[in-house]
Write a structure and sequence with these properties.
Layout lengths: L6 H5 L15 H13 L5 H18 L10 H10 L2 H14 L8 E8 L12 E7 L4 E8 L5 H9 L8 E4 L6 H9 L3 E4 L6 H23 L2 H11 L1
Parallel strand pairs: 1-4, 4-5
Antiparallel strand pairs: 1-2, 2-3
């Protein structure tokens, strides 16, 4: 994309799951209000709804509402339960991508993290694999890692979503897998991954390769033509 897109423009592309007869507020306005409220620290539907009511008509009209009265708690609850999460995240990916400078080499950092506060008693926390774009200081895309898969498989899916061509993909030792390397290279990208004890044979091969290169360099310097010329002059 040549120009940065606004969140309002992006939210207009998200499919609206509501029945057309019961739409009192534009979807983009509701999503925008939720974003603004969450940026101020609101963490619940009730807090988001209260934030909108307290800020009044000025904010409501600025976000695209057709009425001065913003949605109540139940509206947010029903909407977010029905919203197409994949379509929503894809829209956010397009927004972040539009804000990345195109005249710079883009680095994407892959990492897996457990969402803070997602653990509930015996229920484990929600684990995510994300591609972070340092230039935009934002997550370009992320995927949930469920119980039937792992970070490695989720990373393969993630590479099919984010733009890899011409990019440098970085990651920790968890992503040192041959099929990941192959997918990045086949997609026109490069990679820089850390290697640790989880891939002992690979670590040994890399160490041996670097040692060979260093030894070759020293041999080349020792037997360079300039040294032989200097030695011949000394002997004469």
């Amino acid at each position: 994309m040549d120009t940065s897109l606004s969140l309002l423009e992006i939210f207009d592309t998200v499919p609206d799951p509501r029945d057309k007869k019961g739409r009192f507020h534009p979807l983009s306005a509701i999503l925008s209000l939720a974003v603004v409220a969450m940026l101020t620290g609101c963490k619940s539907y009730e807090a988001i709804a209260q934030f909108g009511r307290e800020k009044g008509a000025a904010l409501a009209y600025a976000l695209g509402f057709r009425r001065s009265k913003t949605p109540c708690k139940s509206t947010f609850s029903v909407l977010f339960r029905a919203l197409d999460i994949k379509a929503f995240e894809a829209a956010l990916t397009r927004w972040v991508a539009s804000r990345i400078p195109h005249d710079e080499e883009l680095v994407l950092c892959m990492d897996g993290k457990t969402a803070r506060g997602s653990k509930d008693g015996e229920t484990p926390g929600q684990h995510l694999v994300a591609a972070y774009a340092p230039q935009a200081q934002a997550v370009l895309s992320q995927l949930r890692v469920d119980a039937k898969t792992n970070e490695h498989k989720a990373a393969l899916q993630l590479l099919g979503i984010v733009p890899v061509q011409g990019r440098v993909i970085t990651g920790d030792a968890m992503f040192c897998q041959r099929d990941l390397y192959a997918q990045i290279v086949d997609s026109g990208g490069d990679y820089v991954f850390f290697v640790k004890d989880n891939q002992p044979s690979l670590a040994i091969d890399i160490g041996a390769g670097l040692a060979f290169e260093e030894q070759s360099r020293r041999i080349a310097e020792t037997f360079s033509p300039g040294r032989f010329v200097a030695a011949d002059k000394c002997s004469n």
